[in-house]
Amino acid sequence: MNILFFGPNGSGKGTQGAIVKEKFNIPHIETGVIFRDNISRRTDLGKEAKGYIDRGELVPDSITIPMILDRLKADDGKNGWLLDGFPRNLTQAQELDKALKKEGINLDIVIEMMLDRQIAKNRIMGRRLCVNDNNHPNNIFIDAIKPDGDKCRVCGGDLKTRSDDQDEAAIDKRHNIYYDSETGTTAAINYYKDLSTKQEGSPKIIDLDGRPGVQEVTAELVAKLG
Ligand code: AMP
Questions:
Q1: 117 is catalytic
Q2: Does the beta carbon of 38 sit less than 6 angstroms from any atom of ligand 1?
Q3: Which of the residues 36, 88, 123, 128 is marked catalytic?
């Protein structure tokens, strides 16, 4: 099962993505996580990407597109993958589509999580990352996933914040990219919606309301995945 997961930063995509990953037993490939991992390991890629990420800008396509296309070829993706954070603009969507067609790989599902940008911004600022596992959801503003004191609510690990999560200008820039329907992420989503219309429902498009609590959103997602 090959799935794309769209949603503005702060919509809860990472949390819900973990559910999809479990359900289909596929790797959850998150572009932002790959970049942050490279930054913490001080690789050349990390050094190159850091400035863009701190400012809330996209890392250039010339770096991001080959990195992801390469990642999709890894062994763990043989039975499918869940891609989260890519494509983030129209060019990336077109390049991904081209690469998949070339390899004869079908895109099965496109999930779009919808959330008002102000709510998303508040959630971003409350988000805390577990040092042990990126898929342990913690947010100081959301009761259902509130940390246990200053520790991860799942494993008790230490928590940290992302520097680009505490900077309002960077958050606004990320959201401007997301809601840009000319060349940004919304343009990429529309590209897949058009494709789905042309190809009689393939990929399947799933719309998800990101406003309710974590469990309600999960229930809607699971019901729509079938
Ligand atoms: P995220 O963890 O998805 O919020 O991503 C954090 C940052 O990584 C973004 O603000 C971008 O700077 C960079 N990034 C993530 N995905 C992409 C992408 N598909 N293209 C370019 N830059 C990206």
A1: no
A2: no
A3: 88
Q: pLDDT of 164-216, one tens digit each?
A: 898 999 999 999 999 999 999 999 999 999 999 999 999 999 999 999 988 89
Which residue in 81, 136, 133 sits closest to 109, CA to CA?
81
Residue nearest to atom 1 of ligand 1 (CA): 32
Q: Is the CB of 185 under 6 A from ligand 1?
A: no
Q: Is the CB of 35 under 6 A from ligand 1?
A: yes
The residue annotated as part of the active site, out of 151, 162, 204, 224, is 162
- Calpha distance 42→32 (Å, rounded): 15
Q: Is the CB of 203 under 6 A from ligand 1?
A: no
Distance between CA atoms of 226 and 221, rounded to whole angstroms?
A: 9
Place of tokens 């494509």: 87
C-alpha distances in Å from residue 159, one per residue of 32, 37, 155, 162, 187? 17, 16, 11, 10, 34
- Residue 51, both tokens: 């400035």
Closest by CA position to 120, among listed 206, 210, 207: 210
Nearest CA to 113 out of 205, 218, 13 is that of: 13
User: Tell me: the pLDDT tens digits for 68-97?
Assistant: 999 999 999 998 999 999 999 999 999 999
Please answer whether residues 16 and 8 qualify as being in contact, where contact means their C-beta atoms are separated by less than 8 angstroms: no
Contacts of 28 (CB under 8 A, 6+ apart): 17, 18, 20, 21, 82, 84, 135
